[in-house]
UniProtKB/TrEMBL annotation:
This is Amino acid ABC transporter ATP-binding protein. The keyword Transport applies. CDD domains: ABC_HisP_GlnQ. PANTHER family: AMINO ACID IMPORT ATP-BINDING PROTEIN, L-CYSTINE IMPORT ATP-BINDING PROTEIN TCYN. PROSITE patterns: ABC_TRANSPORTER_1, ABC_TRANSPORTER_2. It is a peripheral membrane protein. GO terms for molecular function: ATP binding. Keywords: ATP-binding, Cell membrane, Membrane, Nucleotide-binding, Transport. It comes from Leuconostoc aquikimchii. It is found in: Cell membrane. Residues 2-239 form the ABC transporter domain. InterPro entries: AAA+_ATPase (IPR003593), ABC_ATPase_HisP-typ (IPR030679), ABC_transporter-like_ATP-bd (IPR003439), ABC_transporter-like_CS (IPR017871), MetN_ABC_transporter-like (IPR050086), P-loop_NTPase (IPR027417).
Length: 243
């Protein structure tokens, strides 16, 4: 349902993604692990054109887009099938929690304000924040802000959700509430690609784990295969830091 082929990306002459392929089935959750600087965030950002990849293609449902030769309209069509959750939440600070959730529904997907508000209320309830719809981001904790970020990303029922280190900026005691929402999101059947350092989450929730290093996929497998029986020296060395 989602197929990325031969993705390459350089910043000037520094090639940071060196030919990555990735396929996901409907509702599949894939976690990407790897050392800092290995290209995980860049890879994710290329998928929805926040960075412009140099080469390769992405297919989501029936739409195939070749990187490097894309029209603005194609990018918009593709983005409509994706939601993204950022490490720093990326909320509009001058809009309330509810307005943040509604914004892409109305501006990108053409929902009426009434329909968007109805959906936003439903989402606020599902993430345990129905009392907080009129709060501004500055009045919310990091965990609450990230739950709003997730609600915004899932509002229009995308095919795939991209998570870029969604808990990395949080105080440790707030990580759990965000992971709990992510688990609930998985149960809705949306495909998810999650860049994270939360090993327990990767182990429990992913269908597949990818270990990336130096711009390439070094190893991939089930959580059991990667965590219990890693084959590659670089995977073993990376994981040994977490045990
Ligand atoms: P990771 O997410 O695995 O930590 P990144 O994708 O953030 O890795 O970074 C991969 C490499 O790309 C790093 O060497 C980083 O310095 C470089 N990089 C990332 N973004 C940019 C940019 N906008 N301009 C130049 N280099 C970048």
């Amino acid at each position: 349902m989602i197929e990325v082929k031969n993705l390459h990306k350089s910043f000037n002459d520094n090639e940071v993604i060196k030919g990555v392929d990735l396929s996901l089935n409907e509702g599949e959750v894939v976690t990407i692990l790897g050392p800092s600087g290995s290209g995980k965030t860049t890879f994710l950002r290329c998928l929805n054109f926040l960075e412009t990849a140099d080469l390769g293609s992405i297919k989501v449902n029936d739409q195939i887009v070749e990187f490097g030769q894309t029209s603005a309209n194609e990018i918009l069509q593709l983005r409509r099938k994706m939601g993204m959750v950022f490490q720093n939440y990326a909320l509009f600070l001058n809009k309330t929690a509810k307005q943040n959730i509604m914004e892409p529904m109305v501006l990108v997907h053409g929902y009426s304000v009434e329909k968007a508000e109805h959906r936003a209320n439903e989402l606020l309830e599902s993430i345990g924040l129905s009392e907080h719809g009129d709060y501004y981001p500055s009045q919310l904790s990091g965990g609450q802000k990230q739950r709003i970020g997730i609600a915004r990303a899932i509002a229009t029922r995308p095919t795939v959700l991209l998570f870029d280190e969604p808990t990395a900026a949080l105080d440790p005691e707030l990580v759990g509430e965000v992971l709990k929402v992510m688990k609930a999101v998985k149960n809705t059947g949306v495909a998810m690609i999650v860049v994270t350092h939360e090993m327990q989450f990767a182990y429990e929730v992913s269908d597949r784990v990818i270990f990336m290093s130096d711009g390439r996929i070094v190893e991939e497998g089930t959580p059991h295969q990667i965590f219990e029986e890693p084959q590659e020296a670089r995977t073993k060395a990376f994981l040994s830091r977490f045990t």
